[in-house]
Amino acid sequence: MYVWVAWVMFAVSDPAGFPDHPHRGFETVTYMLQGAFTHQDFAGHKGTIRTGDVQWMTAGRGIIHSEMPAGQGTQRGLQLWINLSARDKMNEPRYQELRREDIEKVERDGVEVRVIAGEAMGVRSSVDTITPTMYLDFTLIPGAQVHQSIPDSWNSFVYVVEGEGTFGSWNSSPVTAHIALVLGLGDGLSVWNKSSEPLKFVLIGGQPLNEPIVQYGPFVMNTQDEIDQTIEDYQFCRNGFEMAKYWRSQ
């Protein structure tokens, strides 16, 4: 089964946002493209991520958190939900914050890659991932090309953030911004920028869990019985949701 649960590009302006809400059974990865967002949760984690920063939150057995705009104008970013295996779904929640300047970056032959998770061009990210994951942010100047290896068995996809690129083979039709491509299994991904403008895209890959998955809103488990139990735990503030009775974001 796929390791990904959800993928979204968001654009939010104050007073909109994502006020207090629960999660269980997976991780969220938020990558800010423009502006700032503040995270708070009932485990005591709090932080503001700005353009180029990353927040990696493990909901595990249960978390309630908020994500609210912290800048002027429109805040833009990408959010990925990563499933956890059955053995990890009831882990304690945790929070990792990666500042823009701390993200490993490589520049070579007109290609820049920011290594948020995994490895590229001989550089490895410092982020600790529970589910083996690759999260790479590429920028190619006009005329540049790149090949990135991907483990044979991994699920992977590309999302074009800006510009236009040719993916897979030289003769493929160009793909423009805000399009996602789900990749087949193979030896990796080749990309060419034949346009006159820079190309920016993210490449995300992960090891399949090969387990059943049942999602109900903010909860991601393996069976319907586990979903029913999660809803009950949340409603009665137990088994990981004890603080739900008292906690409110500030």
Provide tags for this entry.
250 residues; mainly beta; Jelly Rolls; six-stranded antiparallel beta sheet; five-stranded antiparallel beta sheet; 1 helix; 23 strands
Descriptive overview:
This protein has 250 residues and is mainly beta. The protein has two domains: 99 residues, Jelly Rolls, CATH 2.60.120.10; 109 residues, Jelly Rolls, CATH 2.60.120. The chain has one helix and 23 strands. A six-stranded antiparallel sheet has the order 10-11-14-21-16-19, with no helix packed on it. The protein has a five-stranded antiparallel sheet with strand order 1-8-3-6-9, with no helix packed on it. The mean pLDDT is 94.
Task: Describe the SSE topology.
Elements: E1 4-13, E2 18-23, E3 26-34, E4 36-41, E5 46-50, E6 54-58, E7 63-69, E8 74-83, E9 94-98, E10 104-108, E11 111-117, E12 119-120, E13 123-124, E14 133-140, E15 145-148, E16 155-162, E17 164-167, E18 175-176, E19 180-183, E20 189-192, E21 199-206, E22 214-216, E23 219-221, H1 224-235
Antiparallel strand pairs: 1-8, 2-7, 3-6, 3-8, 4-5, 4-7, 6-9, 10-11, 11-14, 12-13, 14-21, 15-20, 16-19, 16-21, 17-18, 17-20, 22-23
Task: State the low-pLDDT regions, or none.
Answer: none
CATH topology of the largest domain: Jelly Rolls
Task: Please describe the biggest sheet, giving its number of strands, its sense, and whether it closes into a barrel.
Answer: 6 strands, antiparallel
Helical residue percent band: under 10%
From the alpha carbons, calculate the radius of gyration and give it in angstroms. 19 Å
Look at the structure and give the CATH class of the largest domain. Mainly Beta
Q: What is the count of helical runs?
A: 1
Number of β-strand runs: 23
* Level-2 CATH architecture of the largest domain: Sandwich
Domain tally: 2
Please state how the strands of the largest beta sheet are arranged side by side.
10-11-14-21-16-19
Q: What's the helix-strand series?
A: EEEEEEEEEEEEEEEEEEEEEEEH
Tell me the overall shape. Answer: globular
Mean pLDDT across residues: 94
How would you name the CATH homologous superfamily of the largest domain?
Jelly Rolls
Cofactor: Fe cation
Protein name: Pirin
Keywords: Iron, Metal-binding
GO molecular function, one term: metal ion binding
